[in-house]
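Thread: "does anyone have the structure for this chain?"

Original post by V.I.:
We have the sequence but no experimental structure in hand. Need at least a predicted one for the grant figures.
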Amino acid sequence: MSSTEARKVKLEFKTLVGDLAHHNIHALNQLEPELKERVYSLFIPDRLFNTFNIDRGTFRNNDGERVVELIAPKRAGFATIELKESPTDRDCVFFLELADTPFFKLEITFLIVNDPRSPRFGIDLDDSGRRTKFGTARRNIAEEVRAMEAGLAPGQIRKGLGLLKDFLPRALRCLSAMGQDMLVAEPLTYHDAIIFERHGFKYIQGRRIMEKIDRSFQPGGELYSKLDGSSPFRQTGAGRTIRGRSWAIHDGVLGEPWKDIEMYRAMDRKADVCTFPDSVY
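Reply from O.Q.:
Generated one for you, tokens below.
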């Protein structure tokens, strides 16, 4: 996304909202429904509307079906916006949840981008049909193995669309128009944290954990020694790639849950943080 396009997004946001104070999600949720939809839709990159032939003005596809849904209750400090190729599709193309933090900042609590035309892997349900919460509550090992072998990372049911480079400048401009000075994110996986690093995020907490993980995956380290082939996700050499490390961590190689990692991206500058030098995905 070019700087000109980003400025245009910010101007459009301010034009829609006006000069009233709308510094957080709760305040945006007080807008009238049609205006509220228009404002939140600015977080969706143009590339999705263009790729899937969805009209940004009407939120309808070529068949005239409405495919954008917003949930933003007036009393709530969160909002979700979802885009599908067709309303009957099982999986979304884009799902974003934004929430107010206790410290008056805004946080991405969930972001999903799927290529709906790519193969699907059933890591979201176990053998009994119960939801796995993307492998955090329970797991479907067979489907996870299939996903890993196809080049996906933990938590992915389909291949992504490489959209963060389009989404992030747009989101930052929207938040800047709200008077915010940063965007907070809690990476749900190891690879999420590394990807956020590459897009200019730095750590509120967890950098020492990430640096310790990197050291431990080096030859002679504790995690390196656990890549012993004892499971499909702990193969020798997995520590050389972001995805390999992420699958091993998802498989429990740390010996404790993945937690206590929180990051932020300043509006006006990218941070230069790298906890996995010379990494490949």
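V.I.: this helps a lot. The chain has a mean pLDDT of 95.
O.Q.: and The chain is about 30% helix and 15% strand.
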